[in-house]
Fold these 3 entries.
Entry 1:
Amino acid sequence: MRRIFVLILLFNATLGAVELAEGLTLSGWGKQYLGITGMQENVSPDGVTPYEPQGTVQQTLRLRLFYKPVDWFSAETAWQVSPTVSQMGNDGYAALFTPSLNDYRITDLPDTLYTGPGGQILFPHTIDRLNLTFTLPFMDLYAGRQAISFGAAKFVNPTDVFAPLSFQDINREEKVGVDAVRVKFPIGEMNELDAGYVFGPDGRFSKSAAFLRGKFALWETDFTLMFVEYQYNLLAGLSVERAIGGAGVWLEAAYTADGVLEGRNSDDDNFRFSAGADYNFADANLVLFGEYHYSMVGELYPSKYLTNTLTKPAYSDSGVYLLGAHYLAVGFTWEIVPLLNGSFQTLTNLTDGSLLIAPRLEYSMADDLFLDVGASVGAGATARKGSFLGFTYPVPRSEFGLYPYTVYTTVRLYF
């Protein structure tokens, strides 16, 4: 299989995007990922030595067909396959540090899985895009599996609840597609009204969502107001973006009334917001950025972090994954020399002082062929062991002291 995968990449590298017929184009990308992960002391699964590195090898191929026979109509589909061999096993450890992805798809293709003494073999594949677009004089209509993104923030998006990204997403190229019907109505030259319905498993209303969103340009500032109903929760959101003194600044906020459409009188309503800025030093090919994030649903006492995730619905419904309340993300991207780019990002839990560090180097080996080397490292007070009725469990003393470290390299080819 590996040889077949390499031959496909080499074949497409010689062709680039291929026009199969008039208006029909084939494109895509392939990636080889190799990661080494080590787990922190006192939080590793049973049978795993805390600092014994665990390897993951993944090969991903994504093929995209795009058809646009006329100006007012287009169709898109994308199939992605990611055979994976991992020593990590199916212990769910990594799920502690990533957003809970609610399955906003009516149905999906099954994964094949083998689990043995040495780890697991996954053959996940998915139809990640399958949609039609109608561009009409008075509206744009999108129907089918598509990417939907909300919010102005760069690191943590409080309003993005359908397929949220996490700070340490180091092996994801595409936004996960969801099944939806969406319409956009232009209002003048710069404003629009956006509405949609997003389907849950089997189309069940209790697992589905709907949104209404308006985007307006006033006083050289972009304002976005939105309302989202999902799993009986109601979210009201605001995003603001503008330029000030050559810097780009943004604010994104969301208030979620938990279970309000079910008639629940809940104490789990929550408020989250992110505010930040970036500045491009063009002469130095350097961009600096920073963002503050506040989460009302987060916990101030590290020893209660894990209990809090089990009792607050936001961790299962709203894509919340950070355990604390106050965060500062800072970093930079830099073109070191032509063909070599670097980035460095840090996320600090301001309450317990722990850090998540993510350095990365990208080298362009040829047109559309890139080599990446990077890491994601958590630093902070490690957990202590607790016990109850003979069972042991981790008691956190900091958030990012729980996180594993990962060192990785990827080779990416686009065609």
Entry 2:
Amino acid sequence: MAWTDVVGVVGVIMILAAYAAATMGRLDVKGALSLSANAIGATLILLSLSVDFNLSAAIVEGVWALVALVGLVRLGVRRLRAGPRQAS
């Protein structure tokens, strides 16, 4: 198995694990962990596609990564606007 296959499989596992955890109510789909798993997973799949290119898969994974990154940016902006948390 080529390194790109391993990278792609790791990406698929990350996305599927995040989806399964969200479906079972164990992971907030709008949370940083879920969004990060999706962004990293999709990016790893895109990397694996660099060797054995498939346009339709590249489009899906590119959009998947972009949506997750937009979610992470929105989450970061929301946290910045909320200001620093004060210790009790």
Entry 3:
Amino acid sequence: MSMFSELGRRIRQNIQTYTIILALVGIWLFFAVLTEGRYVNPQNISNLFRQMTVTSFLAIGMVLVIVTGNIDLSVGKAAGFVSVVVAYLQAYVWHAIFPGQALLAATLSILIGLAVGLVWGVLEGYVIAYLNIPAFIVTLGGLFIMRGGILIVTQGRTIPANQPYLKEIAQGYLPDLAGWVLAIIVVAILVFNMFRSRQKRRDYGFELSPFSIDLFGTLFFSALVIAYVYIVNQYNGVQAPVLLMAIAALIIAYMSNNTKFGRYAYAIGGNRDAARLSGINIRQNIFQIFLLMGLLCGVAGIVLASYVGYGTIAAGEGYELDAIAAAILGGTSPLGGVGTVFGALIGALIMTSLTTGLQILNVQPAWQYLLKGMVLVLAVYADVYFKKKS
């Protein structure tokens, strides 16, 4: 197979992914022109990636939820509830119990925040998976419960959460040298994975694609990593929350593609009856997915508290919609069975890019919502169109 025919085949197989990448590039170029370059300066690029992190944590979990044919409408307020709990502990509890122990206070707040998210995932997952109540109803009820929980914890007040150590989670930066070391490590991993993947295909007797195609893909993503580190180092360096987001995304992507847990999720979404007849424990898998979603809500809530610096009554408002939109924009099919973590990250970046660009242009919020809604509908139409074509 020639290099060009293989390249064409890959493009046809991943046309939806390439389409959203081109859409992202088009959005950046559009706003760069309208803002006379301000949109793509290092500071704005740095802020753009930081702003997408909370949505991204929720979106990468939402991929597996939607893949199985479910939905979670409570993730935004669940993350918001975790954020106000963390803020409350930081502001009113730990300084009285452990005065002057800022690191210990931040550590305990993080652990409790993760535990709250995990418990919430257990509760929702059990009701959905084992009591057979539709996820839409359960998570809609969960949204109201979490909204009430936020009001109970805050008592209608804003709670400060910008104490030392905790604020570094979302507001911290890596030194320039650390950013370059990280880039070198990532590039080395990409090269290693390329050779390992080719060796595995050779060992199992599969046809190998031209080496030049694999090399081009590896060099392309390596160039993106290096360019990103170079740009953000022009401002303050690689952002701590972006590093956390990347680690979480790699873990979830590995679980999705290389474990029974992930393969079963796609099998359930692709054909539930076939999955059941093949012996897959559907209830257990769905329970585990909502457990994971709850844990990611805990992570997102901690990052949200650190990023905003406060726990507020509006914490997490609308994040569930952004997370769902990001997953669908990234190619996750609302019909189930299809979706990738990488696509969800691109979707989250598109949503954040639109919001940031429109804000820089001082577009009224009403028009921002209209545009984002139209983009989401177009993404669903594209999903249906590509399914018909295939």
